[in-house]
Amino acid sequence: MNDAAVVILAAGQGTRMKSRMAKVLHKAGGKPLVRQAIDTALEIAPRERIFVVVGYQAEQVRAEVEAAGVQAIHQTEQLGTGHAVMCGEEKLASLGGSLIVFVGDCPLIQPDTLRQLALQQRGDGAGATVITTEVDDATGYGRIIRDANGGVSEIVEHKAATPSQLAVREINSGILCFDAQLLWEHIHELRTDNPAREYYLTDMVAILIRAGSRVTAMKIPDSSELLGINNRVELAEADRILRARKVRQLMIDGVTIEKPETVTIDSGVTIGMDTIIGPFAQLTGTSVIGDGCKVGACSIIHSSVLGDAVEVFPFSMVADSRLDAHAHVGPYGRLRMGAHLGHSAHVGNFVELKNTELGAGAKSMHLAYLGDSTIGEKVNIGAGTITCNYDGSRKHRTAIGDGAFVGSNSTLIAPVEIGEGAYIAAGSVINQKVPAKSLGVGRARQVNKEGWKKRT
Ligand code: UD1
Ligand code: MG
């Protein structure tokens, strides 16, 4: 497929989304629609032959295009899908071979289907081949009109269709493969004499046939692959299908997923063998999960790295953090903003770590806030410990040396340092350095008033 080029049309606003954000930036399967389309294209064509037409919110869409390492084409005014392709003439006309054009709002299409499309177009010696399917409700789609011999004669857009054409259930997927040379030879014959006053790419079918060329259809039985996203109901449906595909692939690759229909796993997430994912877990962003981990029910892991055999107990939330092998968190744990658990470190219920490193084998099992802290190996943090990292205007750090023991309900006022092996008496308020191996006590001594009750 090295001489195939791909153009993805992504310049439209997508008014039916009723959104301030361009349609192609909405996400399905954890990826913006345009990125999904680009990633599919990358499976079948070399990077330098993939182009994306941008227009509405061009800056934001272009950022996605560039992040994916492919080229953008600018369509200043959105005058229709045919016009969008015309805008690429300068960059594309010299490429020759086959040109696959596909709408950027069709995220379920599989690379193999695109490969077959290009093969069929060439095999048929066709001016164009269009992917079609039959749907129960063809509302909004272009209809495939066939001649008496069953050949494709034209595509009629919904808005321009007669009542009998509207009854046709075979639809244009929006994915076509052209003989590039013929396309560029005839594309300027497109006119805007239709109800939308747009240049319809779909009119190329009739134009090529008039010019003596053949147009063929590649009809596929699974219409779900061709779902076009025009509103949020369809977006949710595409999301569901993409996630089901992802979960299925993970299971095939050796991940146990309990109640797979309930979990949410973004396409960018990788999970190692023999890891068990509980019901309703969400693994999003660029998370990388090692082998033999457990991610408990209803936990959320976003763009985090888990080493092997890490356990995340139910209802925990881990974002932008790193957990080394055999670390534990939860239930009801929260790690965020660069938290790092060393090997076998344990964080229990209702403990929050922000921008904090907890050394290997260290433990904080109950009810604590550890922010902006560096905590050494095998430290024990008692229940209710709070690092007071914020003074109202600035954040300060807390450093706790290896093997230190912080008694329950301690308040550590940062910046503060607790030396290696030091002890903090329970209930202390600590605002000065505690040297290594010493006991820091920062609380009033207990006074018992004997007979007090009787006197009052
Ligand atoms: C299009 C097809 C229709 C097909 C359907 C499949 C045309 C004229 N119609 O209709 O036959 O059944 O897709 O989903 O091609 N775009 C641009 N520039 C523009 C206009 C649109 O880049 O000037 C892009 C949009 O961003 C979008 C794609 O083209 O990604 C399709 O546009 P949309 O308005 O959704 O076309 P449909 O009405 O769905
Ligand atoms: Mg559409």
Structure, explained:
It is a single chain. This protein is of the alpha/beta class and 456 residues long. The protein is built from ten helices and 39 strands. The strands form six sheets. It has a 16-stranded parallel β-sheet that branches. A nine-stranded parallel β-sheet has the order 14-17-20-23-26-28-30-33-36, with no helix packed on it. β4, α2 (58-67) and β5 form a beta-alpha-beta unit. The longest helix has 21 residues, at 232-252. The protein is elongated, with a radius of gyration of 30 Å. The relative contact order is 0.07. The mean pLDDT is 97. Uridine-diphosphate-N-acetylglucosamine (UD1) is lined by residues 9-12, 24, 53, 55, 75, 78-81, 83-84, 103-106, 140-142, 155, 157, 171-174, 200-202, 228, 230.
Write the layout of secondary structure elements.
Blueprint: E1 4-9, E2 27-28, E3 31-32, H1 33-42, E4 50-54, H2 58-67, E5 71-74, H3 81-86, H4 89-92, E6 98-103, H5 111-124, E7 128-134, E8 143-146, E9 152-156, H6 163-166, E10 170-179, H7 180-186, H8 204-210, E11 215-219, H9 232-252, E12 256-257, E13 264-265, E14 270-271, E15 276-277, E16 282-284, E17 288-289, E18 294-295, E19 300-302, E20 305-306, E21 311-312, E22 317-319, E23 322-323, E24 328-329, E25 334-336, E26 340-341, E27 346-354, E28 357-358, E29 363-371, E30 373-375, E31 380-381, E32 386-388, E33 398-400, E34 405-406, E35 411-413, E36 416-418, E37 423-424, E38 429-430, E39 439-440, H10 452-455
Parallel strand pairs: 1-4, 1-6, 4-5, 7-11, 12-15, 13-16, 14-17, 15-18, 16-19, 17-20, 18-21, 19-22, 20-23, 21-24, 22-25, 23-26, 24-27, 25-27, 26-28, 27-29, 28-30, 29-31, 30-33, 31-34, 32-35, 33-36, 34-37, 35-38, 37-39
Antiparallel strand pairs: 2-3, 6-10, 7-10, 8-9
Magnesium ion is lined by residues 103, 105, 228, 230.
